[in-house]
Amino acid sequence: MTNPSGHALPANSTAESHDGDFGFTLMELRKLMELRASEGVTQINVHYGGVQNICSRLKTSPVEGLSGNPADLEKRRLKFGQNLIPPKKPKTFLELVWEALQDVTLIILEIAAIISLVLSFYRPPGGNNELCGQVASTPEDENEAEAGWIEGAAILFSVIIVVLVTAFNDWSKEKQFRGLQSRIEQEQKFSIIRNGQLIQLPVAEIVVGDIAQIKYGDLLPADGILIQGNDLKIDESSLTGESDHVKKSLDKDPMLLSGTHVMEGSGRMLVTAVGINSQTGIIFTLLGASEDDEEEKKKKGKKQGVPENRNKAKAQDGVALEIQPLNSQEGIDNEEKEKKISKVPRKEKSVLQGKLTRLAVQIGKAGLIMSAITVVILILYFVIDNFVIQGRTWLPECTPVYIQYFVKFFIIGVTVLVVAVPEGLPLAVTISLAYSVKKMMKDNNLVRHLDACETMGNATAICSDKTGTLTMNRMTVVQAYIGGTHYHQIPSPDVFPPRVLDLVVNGISINSAYTSKILPPEKEGGLPRQVGNKTECALLGFVTDLKHDYQAVRNEVPEEKLYKVYTFNSVRKSMSTVIRKPSGGFRMFSKGASEIILRKCNRILDKKGEALPFKNKDRDDMVRTVIEPMACEGLRTICIAYRDFDDAEPSWDNENEILTELTCIAVVGIEDPVRPEVPDAIAKCKRAGITVRMVTGDNVNTARAIATKCGILTPGDDFLCLEGKEFNRLIRNEKGEVEQEKLDKMWPKLRVLARSSPTDKHTLVKGIIDSTVGEQRQVVAVTGDGTNDGPALKKADVGFAMGIAGTDVAKEASDIILTDDNFTSIVKAVMWGRNVYDSISKFLQFQLTVNVVAVIVAFTGACITQDSPLKAVQMLWVNLIMDTFASLALATEPPTESLLKRRPYGRNKPLISRTMMKNILGHAVYQLAVIFFLVFAGERFFDIDSGRKAPLHSPPSQHYTIVFNTFVLMQLFNEINSRKIHGEKNVFSGIYRNLIFCSVVLGTFISQVLIVEFGGKPFSCTKLTLSQWLWCLFIGIGELLWGQVISAIPTQSLKFLKEAGHGTTKEEITKDAEGLDEIDHAEMELRRGQILWFRGLNRIQTQIKVVKAFHSSLHESIQKPKNQNSIHNFMTHPEFAIEEELPRTPLLDEQEDEDLEKVSKTGTRVLPLDDEVTPHANQNADVVDCNQVHVVGSHSDSPLQNLETSV
C-alpha cells in the first residue's frame, strides 16, 4: 500500500511539464466504471496492472494525492470534465408573462374589454335615434362619447399591469431560490488529500486523479476505485434499487459510484469519473434527453384533465433518482408497496395551502353565482324596462347600441367576479413563506421544503437528540478510573507505571478514526479545535493532558499498517482496531460504551499494570461505585480495553469470539456541557404548549442528569425516563409487534428515551404521529444527524438535520437544516411557522372584508341603479393592486415573542376564527352602511349632482368619485386594523418595526390621491374639493374607531358566528389519497376543483405554480438536477421505507443480530454508529437516583458525528 511519496511528486511535475498526456482516455475510464464487482477487479488487475498502476497513469500518488498545481488541475478538467452537471435553464420573463396570462379571470376580462373597445369605435347609423333609449347626446358630451374607448383600454391596461406584477413576482422568486440553492451547493464540501494534506474541497472542484477520504455518512460526489478500506459498506439503492448494503474491498468489489451512501466504515478512493461522465451523470444525461418528450406527454395529459400524481410528476422531471428501468423487479415491488401504503397513515403536506385553496374555491363559487345573477338581473331589468314598460320595439339600427349596453352589463358581472375571487390570497402565502424562509436563514434554519415552515407553527412535540443539539458537542475527559483508582480530576502522568500509560495512549491514538484530530485554536487564547468525531477528540485531548503526542503514535503506525478495523455501527456500539506486534502475534484495542465493553472483559489492570481477574461481582461493584456516579453527573462513560493474540491467527470474521476475554485498561467520564441558552429555550417551548422529549444513545443516568439540567425534567414531575430495552418491552406484544394502544398509554408521559436504537426513535415518532389519544393529531418535529436517523427524519412532520455534525444522508432526509446545530434555532423555527399562519390570517381578514363589501355594493348597486357604483377599473385597482400590496404589507410582519405564549393551533383549526369572523362582519356592516348612505343620499348631503342612472358614456360624476374614494380610504384604515387578529386593542403596536407595512400604506394613499385628482375618465373619477376629501378621510378614520367598538364586544356572546376555512376531513382524504405516500392538501383541493370547470377562475392556479416553483426549486436544489451545479446535490436519499407492520422482537441480547438483520432487510439503514448506543439495559439502571447534579465546567466547540447521535 505504502507508495513512497517521492514517486508521486515527480509524476505530478512531469504532468505539468510535458503535454500532460494521461495514460487513459475519458472513454476508457467511463467503460471501467461501468463494470461491477469481480469484473472490475479483473479489469483493474489484469488489464491495467492494479490500482497503483492506475494511479501512476493518472499521475497521482495514493498517499500524497495531487499537487494542487492550477495548470495541472485545469488540464484534468479539460480532459476529463468538471464535477458538475449543467443546470436546467430557468424560465425567461416572457414565459412567465405567458403563464400569468393563462389566468381565466384575466382572459374573461380581456375578452370583455376588447368587445367594449370594438363597439365603442363602431358608430351605427341612427345611433342617436331617440327610440334607442338614453345615450349621452348633449352637444358638450359628444367628445365624451368619442372617449367611450377609454374604459376598455383602461381594463386592458390594468390587466397588463397585473400580468407584469405576477410575472415579476414569479421571476424574483425563481432568482431568490437559485441564489439559496447555490449557497447550499457552496456548502457541500468533501475531504480530499492534496499534497499530503487532508483538505475540505467544494464538491465541484474535485477532479479525476484526486484521492478522496471517505467515511460513514458520506454521499459520494464522484465515481472512483477503492485504494484502502476498513469495513466499508455502501448503500447503492439510489442507482440499482438493491436495498442490501454492498461490502466494498480491494479484492472483491473496489468500484465506488457517485450518488451512493457510505453506510459503514471508512477508506480512501481514487476519483476516476466526475460530473456528466460519472454513473449518475450519465443517467442524468439520458434523462435530460428524454425530458422534452416527457413535457409533451405532460401537456397532453393535462389537456385530458388527468389528475397528476405529484410523485410521478417529480419522476417525470427527469430528476428523481429512483431509476426503475435499471431494475425491472423494482417496478413490481413498487406496485406492491403502493398497495400496502394505502393502509398506512401518510405524511400530510401543505395543510395550510389546502385550507386556503379550499377557501378560495368556495369563495370563487360564491362569486361566480353572484356575478351570473348580477348579469341576468341587469339584462332582464333593461329588457323589461325598455320593451315592456316603455313599450319600445327592437329596431335593427339600434342593435349595436343595445349590444353596448349588454357588454357594459357583462363587464359589471365580470367585475363582481374579479372582486369576489381573492386574487391576493395565494400571493400572500407565497410572499409570507418566501419572506420567512429568507429570514429563517438568518436564524440558522436552512429550509429545504417550504411547507416545513408552516408545519413548524403547529408543532406539538419535539424529539431532540442530546449531543450537539442540547449540549455543546465539545467533549472533554474530566474523570478517569485507572488501576483501581477513581480520579475526579485528570491525574498527572507520573502516577501511572509506563506500561499502563503506554496502553492508554496507544489504545486511544490507534483505535480512533485517523480523521479525528485536535488542531491549534483559530484565535490566540481560544480553545483547541476538535475535528472529526467529538468523543474521539475528547479521548485524544486526554492523551495530550497526559503529556503525550497522539500524532507521533499515529506516525509510527500509519493507517496502512492497521491489520483489521471493526468500525462503529449500531450493532457493535464499539470500535476495535487490530495491529501486528513487533514481537509477533496481534494486539487488538477496543473502546465503547462502558457497560458493553466491561461485559466482555475478564481481566482488569491494577496499579502496577498487572492484569487481575475481573468477575461479574467486580463488574457490578464497578458499575455501582464508578460508572453510575459519573453518569449521575451527566458524564458519558467510555471503557478502553485490549486483547493480545499470541497464538495462531484467529478467524477475524468471527467477531463474537474476537471481542471477548478483553482486559480493561481504563474507564473515562466525558463531559459535554449543556448549551447555556437551552434551558431558556425549553422553558419557552413548555409555555408554547410544545413537549420536548430527549432521545439519546447515552446511559439512562447520564440522560436523566442532562435532561434535568436542560429543564426537560423538573424535580417532582411524574414523567418517564426509559431505556430502549424497557421501552420495547412495554410497547410490544408477545410476537414482538408494536401495539398502538400500549404506546398510547406510555408516550404522553415519556420525556427521556436513553440507550435507544434508530428503530426505537422511528417507532416513537411514528407512534406519536399515529396516536389518537388527544383531541388533535400530534405534529412532531425530530432532530437527527446520523445516517440511521433517516427513517425518523422522513417519518416526522418536520425533520431537522444538523448542518455541522449531520451526515449527508441525514440532510437528504430532512426538511430543515440547522446551520448551527442549536436547539434554540428550532424554537425560532416554531416562531416563524406560527408567524406565517398569523400573517395569512391577517391578510384574510383584510381581503375578505374588501370582498364582502365590494360584491354586495356591486350587486345591489347594479340591481337597483343598473350600474355598479364601483366601476370595473376601480375594482381592479382595489382588488388586484391594493390587495397585492396589502398581502406584501401584512405577510411581512416580523414575529414577536408573544407568539410563543399560546398553544399550537392544531392541524384542524379553521383559518378564520370566530374573532376574525366578528371583525370581518363588523367592519363590513360599517362600510356597507356608509357606502349605501353615500350612494342613495350622498348627493343631498354634499349638495352635488346625482351619479345614479347615468346614461351610457356619460362623464364621471363627483358623487360616484366620493363613493369610490371613501371605499378605498376605509380599506386603507382597515388594513391597520387587520394587523391584529386575536382581538387586541392596540392595533398600532410594533408598527414601526415593519417598514414595508408603513411604506405600503403611505404609497397606496398617495396613489389614491393621484388617481382621484388626475385619473379622469379611465378611472371614472373627477377632482374633489378639499372639504370633500376631508369628509372621505374622516369616514376612513372612523374605521379605526369602529374597530375599537368591535373589539370591545366579547366574541363569546355572538353565538351565531361560524368559523370558516376548515381543512380537509379524514373521510375526504382517504377517498382522494389512494396510492399516494404523501398527502399534499393543496394538490388535492385543486384536483377536487378540477372537476368543476371554474377551477381556473381562481388566480390560485397561477400562484400555486409560484408556490410550486418555489417549492420545487428548493426541493430540487438539494434533491434534483434541475438547477444544480454540483453533482453532490442530486442524489436522492436512500429510500427509507420501514415496513410499518413488521413484527419485531424486543432487542434482547441473543436476538439482537437476527433482529437487526430483519430490520435492515426492510430497508432501514442500520448504520455505523458513532458509539455507544445500546439497547442493553444498564443492569442497575434505577439503583441510584441522581438527585444531586454536579455541573462540571468545561469547554466546547462545534460538532461532528458523536457517540450517541448515532442511534
Note the main sheet: 9 strands, mixed
Radius of gyration over alpha carbons?
A: 36 Å
Counting DSSP H or I runs of 4 or more residues, the number of helices is: 40
* Alpha-beta classification: alpha/beta
Task: Give the fraction of residues assigned to helices.
Answer: 40-55%
Please write out the topology.
Blueprint: H1 5-17, H2 26-34, H3 37-47, H4 50-57, H5 70-80, H6 93-101, H7 104-121, H8 142-146, H9 149-187, E1 189-194, E2 197-202, E3 211-215, E4 223-235, H10 237-240, E5 246-248, E6 255-256, E7 261-273, H11 279-303, H12 310-316, H13 328-341, E8 347-349, H14 351-389, H15 399-420, H16 424-442, E9 445-447, H17 450-456, E10 461-464, E11 476-482, E12 485-487, H18 498-509, E13 517-519, E14 529-531, H19 534-545, H20 550-556, E15 564-566, E16 574-580, E17 586-593, H21 594-599, E18 601-605, E19 611-613, H22 616-632, E20 636-645, H23 655-658, E21 662-671, H24 678-687, E22 691-695, H25 700-710, E23 720-723, H26 724-731, H27 740-746, E24 750-754, H28 758-770, E25 780-784, H29 790-795, E26 798-802, H30 808-813, E27 816-818, H31 823-865, H32 872-891, H33 914-942, H34 958-977, H35 995-1014, H36 1026-1048, H37 1066-1072, E28 1078-1080, H38 1081-1091, H39 1100-1119, H40 1152-1161
Parallel strand pairs: 8-28, 10-22, 10-25, 18-21, 22-24, 23-24, 25-26, 26-27
Antiparallel strand pairs: 1-2, 1-3, 3-7, 4-5, 4-6, 4-7, 9-27, 11-12, 11-21, 13-14, 15-16, 16-17, 17-20, 18-19, 20-21
